User: Which sequence fits this backbone?
């Protein structure tokens, strides 16, 4: 068995949390009045940890992510990134993988992966080299000069991953990144994500409504309530690594954890449906 | 009675009928004039028109005028798109400018640009400058609305992604807004080129300068029907050729647009 | 919230800002001319232009020529639309005609017909007839293709349902196809009106005895900047009013359709 768990343990002893939110809240003004998306969310993510946020659809998980990313201002509460106050865009620290792929359609796969490096002032030749390395790393060697419209959904998602990882952000936010993929592709991507994460050692905050996916991937799972979101429960996931997301679903430990968390989640899903 | 999709006439039959119509029309025209049913003064004959065109080409008469028209159209096109594009970016990114200019442009859009031509002739004279000015006026509106549309339609997702990656406003312009706008411009290029050519011709109708329009106008003043028809035929051929070339280029350059897989 | 609707007051404020900007520009223009910075030969200045406009209105000069332009525009529009709609219906219901003629008609629509004006002058002289024919030619092809599209795109199921309910040929035309065509035509009315006005004005610029275009072109030929400005201003005002009216009609129709659905 390889080192990742040990590394995680080691990292846990060092330094401030990668992400720390305290009493985070967000209200939106709509045509029908003020709507609270998040009420009072408090949690911390340890450096190098893989944390999943799960909750019923529409509960505000993405809003939490967007606030942490600096795309949205919070209405209340505190946000700290690596010990420092957050709230703005922090391109050096934070990467984001969107649900729909956000590749620039007029750039090739390679050019898209090069973009973050170019934005950081890395010289073009070096950028191209690094980008090519990452394109090959996600298994798309030979496709670097293809445009996004010429790639399949799974391939585009891999380029999105490459684009995010190429500049090695210490924190990676992911908003249901694999939701639009078919099941087989999704499993492949999940395994790849775990492999890339193990090597990079980044902190990952992964939002999903799929509890199985969350348990297969995460070190820890936080369950959010139906809108307006609050923390419902916080579960560690002590399953061994490295994991294969398909095989792990049948292990006994997995099923236990699933049963426990599902009880919480099910009530929230029912509540969110009842509210509509 | 139904207009639902059904089985229509066969393609072969249709193509034959169409070819027959074209050929028949030309023959009928020629024969009609020769037989005296149609007045040669008013409609001339295909053979006469063809002879005029051949004479113009052989004698070298055509080329300076063709060049003058095309030159004015191209210069006006580039300038017009630049002016329109710049104005569009200013309106979208400088709110103060946008507040004043945008409603003005929407209002002015209802006015056929030709209305401004006498003003342009007043200020720029009767030569090339006012002709180019007319083309610029026409094309600038296309460039403006294309730019405004492109900037408005930029995918919010791409915007968020590029922001997350740490792009400065200048970088966002360079990597996001500018390529998006250029892509839209290319799509509207066929229309822009067509409008530029028409603008040049109309300018030549009204001013006194070289160009195919001027040739047509001169022939019309002298009641030279074959020459008028020859000039018009050449103009239409020019427009059609330009359009075909652009259609081909558009297909080739839009490689990244073609959606091949889900 | 005290006061009123914040959105409405924002709009009022923006409109006030725009009016202020416009007035400042006019004032600066007048000042520049009086100070000798701007040569009135090229641009004249606001007050003399306004005086001319008032004089022309009072004497009925404007009335006569605006009417002439509008007559040509509306006559051409009426002829073109009626012909286009009739032909569009023919094309919509006769498959063989559609198959044979559609490519020709699409090509004709792509042709810049406005440049054909000298030919029409050759055939019909400089009177209003040549301009009416020009306007009609500009309008007929879009009207035809629009009507044809509208008819072909009527949902088959709607037609079949109506027939089951007992509708005959004439009923279908009256209750389904005509409204469908009318809806599409109405949506494109502002563009169509733009074409019609362009045709009328080009005709008047190139050669006419009456019409606002003639007034402007004549003033330009005489290098009378003040009159060119005054004429252009009046023409712009007329076009603006027409557009305003069409927009109001569009809004009214939209509201009316909404109320039908609810």
Assistant:
């Amino acid at each position: 068995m390889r080192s990742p768990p040990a590394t995680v343990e080691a990292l846990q002893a060092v330094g401030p949390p990668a992400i720390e939110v305290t009493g985070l809240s967000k209200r939106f003004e709509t045509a029908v009045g003020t709507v609270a998306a998040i009420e009072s969310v408090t949690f911390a993510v340890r450096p190098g940890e893989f944390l999943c946020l799960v909750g019923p659809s529409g509960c505000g998980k993405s809003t939490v992510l967007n606030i942490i990313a600096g795309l949205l201002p919070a209405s209340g509460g505190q946000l700290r990134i690596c010990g420092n106050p957050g709230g703005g865009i922090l391109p050096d620290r934070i990467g984001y993988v969107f649900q729909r792929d956000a590749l620039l359609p007029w750039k090739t796969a390679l050019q898209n992966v090069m973009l973050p490096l170019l934005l950081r002032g890395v010289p073009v030749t070096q950028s191209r080299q690094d980008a090519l390395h990452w394109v090959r790393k996600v298994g798309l060697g030979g496709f670097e000069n293809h445009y996004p419209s010429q790639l399949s959904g799974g391939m585009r998602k891999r380029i999105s991953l490459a684009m995010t990882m190429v500049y090695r952000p210490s924190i990676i936010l992911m908003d249901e990144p694999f939701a639009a993929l078919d099941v087989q592709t999704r499993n492949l991507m999940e395994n790849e994500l775990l492999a890339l994460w193990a090597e990079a050692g980044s902190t990952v905050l992964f939002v999903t409504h799929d509890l199985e996916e969350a348990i297969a991937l995460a070190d820890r799972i936080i369950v959010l309530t139906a809108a307006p979101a609050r923390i419902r429960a916080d579960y560690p996931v002590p399953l061994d690594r490295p994991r294969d997301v398909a095989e792990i679903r049948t292990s006994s430990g997995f099923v236990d954890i699933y049963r426990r968390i599902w009880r919480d989640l099910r009530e929230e899903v029912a509540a969110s449906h009842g509210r509509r | 009675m139904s207009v639902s999709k059904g089985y229509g006439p066969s393609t072969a039959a249709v193509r034959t009928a169409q070819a027959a119509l074209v050929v028949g029309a030309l023959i009928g025209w020629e024969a009609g004039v020769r037989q005296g049913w149609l007045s040669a003064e008013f409609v001339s004959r295909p053979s006469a028109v063809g002879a005029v065109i051949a004479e113009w080409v052989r004698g070298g008469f055509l080329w300076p005028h063709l060049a003058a028209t095309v030159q004015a159209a191209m210069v006006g096109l580039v300038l017009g798109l630049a002016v329109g594009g710049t104005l569009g970016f200013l309106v979208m990114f400088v709110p103060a400018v946008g507040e004043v200019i945008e409603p003005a442009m929407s209002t002015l859009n209802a006015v056929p640009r030709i209305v401004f031509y006498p003003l342009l002739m007043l200020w720029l004279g009767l030569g090339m400058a006012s002709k180019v000015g007319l083309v610029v006026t026409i094309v600038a509106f296309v460039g403006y609305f294309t730019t405004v549309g492109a900037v408005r339609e930029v995918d919010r997702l791409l915007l968020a992604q590029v922001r997350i990656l740490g792009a400065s406003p200048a970088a966002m312009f360079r990597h996001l807004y500018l390529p998006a706008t250029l892509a839209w411009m290319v799509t509207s290029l066929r229309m822009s080129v067509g409008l530029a050519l028409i603008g040049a011709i109309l300018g030549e109708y009204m001013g006194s300068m070289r160009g195919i329009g001027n040739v047509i106008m001169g022939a019309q003043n002298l009641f030279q029907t074959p020459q008028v028809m020859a000039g018009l035929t050449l103009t239409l051929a020019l427009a059609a050729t330009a359009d075909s070339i652009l259609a081909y280029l558009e297909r080739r350059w839009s490689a990244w647009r073609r959606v091949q897989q889900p | 919230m005290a006061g009123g609707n914040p959105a409405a007051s924002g709009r009022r404020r923006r409109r006030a800002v725009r009016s202020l900007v416009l007035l400042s520009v006019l004032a600066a223009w007048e000042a520049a001319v009086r100070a000798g910075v701007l040569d009135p030969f090229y641009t004249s200045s606001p007050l003399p232009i306004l005086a001319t406009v008032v004089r022309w209105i009072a004497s009925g000069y404007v009335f006569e020529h605006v009417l002439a332009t509008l007559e040509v525009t509306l006559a051409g529009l009426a002829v073109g639309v009626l012909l286009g709609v009739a032909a569009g219906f023919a094309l919509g219901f006769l498959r063989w005609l559609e198959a044979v003629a559609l490519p020709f008609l699409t090509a004709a629509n792509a042709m810049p017909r406005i440049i054909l004006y000298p030919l029409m002058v050759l055939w019909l002289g400089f009177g209003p007839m040549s301009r009416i024919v020009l306007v009609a030619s500009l309008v007929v092809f879009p009207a035809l293709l629009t009507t044809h599209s509208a008819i072909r795109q009527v949902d088959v199921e709607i037609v079949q349902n109506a027939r089951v309910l007992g509708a005959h040929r004439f009923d279908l035309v009256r209750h389904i196809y005509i409204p469908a065509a009318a809806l599409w035509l109405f949506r494109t009315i502002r563009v169509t009106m733009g074409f019609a006005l362009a045709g009328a004005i080009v005709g008047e610029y190139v050669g006419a005895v009456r019409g606002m275009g003639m007034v402007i072109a004549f003033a330009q030929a005489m290098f009378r900047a003040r009159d060119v400005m005054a004429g252009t201003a009046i023409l712009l005002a007329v076009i603006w009013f027409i557009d305003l009216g069409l927009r109001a009609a569009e809004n009214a129709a939209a509201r009316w359709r909404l109320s039908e659905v609810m």
